[in-house]
Amino acid sequence: MQITDVLQVSLNKVQSENLRRFAKKLPKVAEHVKIYDLPGGGKAFQADVRARNISGSFARYEKQVDARGKTILYTKTTYAPDGGIVHIKFKFPPGPAFYPGG
Asked: Is 69:15 a contact under the CB 8 Å cutoff?
């Protein structure tokens, strides 16, 4: 797993450890991990995984951590080929899947 797009983003030790765990648990075919700053010193880690059976469809895994490295949100969002959201699964905190328009 390649971790890129970190040009202006700095991580503290616990955020770095959380990022390593995130990258390790991603499917093997995941694209590189992108890292974004969040307010208050938090970070968002994102990686896309292309669908094997539906051309143009993909899942985006996103994990958000606070400044102390604690996970505050972890989702898997599935996108249709047209870019519309098919559903959102809340991995943390656990919750029901969300199906837009359904």
From this structure: yes
- For the record, the structure tokens of 53 come out as 């059976």
Taking each continuous run of H as one helix and of E as one strand, the counts in the chain are 1, 5
CB count within 10 Å of CB 65 equals 25
Beta strands of the chain (E only): which ranges? 34-37, 43-50, 58-65, 71-79, 85-92
| R_g (Cα) of the chain, nearest Å | 14
Q: What whole-number distance in Å separates Cα of residue 102 and Cα of residue 95?
A: 17
Phi/psi of residue 24, nearest 5 degrees: -65, -35
Q: Rounded to two decimals, what is the model's pTM? A: 0.84
**Is the pLDDT assigned to residue 1 strictly greater than 70?**
no
